[in-house]
Amino acid sequence: HCKILDDLGFEDYCVSLKDSDSEKVIDANRRFAAERPDVPLHLGVTEAGLPPEGIIKTRIAFEQLISEGIGDTIRVSLTLPNEEKGQEISVGREIIQDIRDGRFRSVPKNFLDGLNIIACPSCSRVENDKFVDLAQDVRKMTQYADKHKLTIAVMGCRVNGPGETDDADLGLWCGPFRVNLKRGPETVGSYSYDEILGKLKEEVDRFIADKHEALEPSGS
């Protein structure tokens, strides 16, 4: 893509390589910076999710990259109600200041080895303000599964939601009145905001039972 822009005579552009996985963000940006150090990079962990987990995911990527001199601009993406979106700026400034002062936060090696909830940053495409509450309720409801390696994606719109939930074990994408539940790329059904938590719990329980059965020795 950069070559296309170069061949067309564009000189003033910026590249952003994002993912909800901090390690993928680190790897992609390191490789790009090594190959094209002349092109500015915009850093971010997309769909990082709810605080504090979303802040930790973002900090992991920023600390590694910025301390290596990689990155020119940043974006912190957290799932927050509109009146609290300013927290993204505060978090970004705090991380930058910590890096500048040589303060790095220790993150356990097993962070996100279990339950991982990713959620989009509640942008203007969200058609129902219940989305943020739903993301928070999903985290509370699934706490009993926190030791299981399970990724749940909670997306707030029908623009990105259908595709960006495909890679999760279970996915929710929200419309104005109903929430669509997915198992991987497969659609399970469409439910009201009042129904969805119960339906999601059924799928979480099924996921755990299937994993347990797969680990059982044959003949036991």
UniProtKB/TrEMBL annotation:
GO biological process: isopentenyl diphosphate biosynthetic process, methylerythritol 4-phosphate pathway; terpenoid biosynthetic process
Keyword Transport: no
Keyword DNA repair attached: no
Residues of the IspG C-terminal domain: 116-205
Entry cofactors: [4Fe-4S] cluster
Domain IspG TIM-barrel stretches: 1-91
Protein name: 4-hydroxy-3-methylbut-2-en-1-yl diphosphate synthase
Top-level taxonomy: unclassified sequences, metagenomes, ecological metagenomes
